[in-house]
Design a protein that fits this description.
Blueprint (H helix, E strand, L loop, with lengths): L1 H38 L3 H20 L7 E4 L3 H14 L3 H5 L2 E8 L10 H5 L7 H14 E8 L4 E5 L5 E12 L5 E12 L5 E8 L2 H7 L1
Parallel strand pairs: 2-7
Antiparallel strand pairs: 1-4, 3-5, 4-5, 5-6, 6-7
Helix pairs in contact: 1-2
C-alpha cells in the first residue's frame, strides 16, 4: 500500500509541476503581449511578435510532455510465479524450481556455492548457468545449509515495457543455518526474472552480498 501511495503522490506531483509550468508560461505570454501592445504602435510588427510569443509558449508547454514506456504491476501472474519459486526453494525442491525456467534459460549469479573471498570472484560478472547447472548448485546449497527461508522484502514490481519482455524485479531476505557450524546467515537478494511468451523464466539475474555466508561458514 505504501508503494502504491508513493507512486500516486509522485505522479500527482509531476502532473502538478507540468500544469504549473504551463500556467505560468501562459501568464508570461499574456504579460508580454500587453507590454508589446503598449510600446509597439505598428500593428504588423506587433502581430509578428505575437506569433513568436505564442510559438515560444507552446514549445515550453510541450517540453514538459511525458512519454509512457510501459506499465508497472504490484500483482501479476508472473509475480505469483516468483512467490511459488521461493516456496519451492524453502522446501529444497530443485525439480520444482527448475520447472519455472525455459529449457534454454540463462541464470546469472550462481557462483557462490563455494564462496571465494578474492575481490575478482566477488564482483566480476560470471558466465550464465544452464538450468541443469543451477539445479546442481541448489543441491550443493541444500547439502551445506538447513532451516532455509526465503521471505519477500517490500512489494515486487512487474515491469511490462513496450519494447521489452516482461520482467519481475523482487527483493528477498534469505535466512539459512550452516549444518557444520550451526551459525545463521542472513542475506538480502534482488532478483530480475525475464519471462518468455510461454510464461517461463528465460533469464534470471541475482545480486547479493555473501559476507554473512562467509562468517557463518567459519
Amino acid at each position: 500500500m505504501e508503494h502504491v501511495r508513493g507512486c500516486f503522490f509522485l505522479g500527482f506531483s509531476r502532473w502538478s509541476l507540468v500544469m504549473s509550468t504551463t500556467y505560468h508560461s501562459q501568464q508570461n505570454s499574456v504579460y508580454l503581449f500587453n507590454q508589446l501592445k503598449r510600446h509597439t504602435p505598428n500593428p504588423q510588427v506587433m502581430k509578428k511578435l505575437l506569433i513568436v510569443i505564442l510559438i515560444a509558449g507552446s514549445v515550453t508547454a510541450f517540453a514538459q510532455k511525458k512519454v509512457k514506456s510501459g506499465v508497472i504491476y504490484s500483482e501479476h501472474p508472473y509475480i505469483e510465479t516468483m512467490r511459488r519459486f521461493a516456496r519451492m526453494y524453502e522446501k529444497q525442491d530443485t525439480a520444482a524450481m527448475g520447472h519455472f525456467f525455459a529449457d534454454s534459460a540463462k541464470i546469472y549469479g550462481m557462483t557462490r556455492y563455494a564462496v571465494d573471498t578474492s575481490k575478482a570472484a566477488q564482483w566480476s560478472v560470471p558466465p550464465p548457468k544452464t538450468v541443469a547447472e543451477a539445479k546442481a548448485g541448489w543441491e550443493q546449497v541444500f547439502e551445506t545449509w538447513e532451516h532455509i527461508t526465503m521471505k519477500p522484502i517490500g512489494v515486487p514490481d512487474g515491469l511490462e515495457y513496450n519494447k521489452s519482455r516482461f520482467t519481475v524485479q523482487s527483493w528477498w531476505l534469505i535466512t539459512l543455518t550452516n549444518k557444520k557450524t550451526q551459525k545463521v546467515a542472513k542475506i538480502e537478494m534482488v532478483l530480475f526474472d525475464i519471462f518468455n511468451t510461454d510464461g517461463k523464466i528465460a533469464v534470471q539475474i541475482g545480486f547479493y552480498d555473501p559476507t554473512s555466508l562467509l562468517i557463518a561458514m567459519k
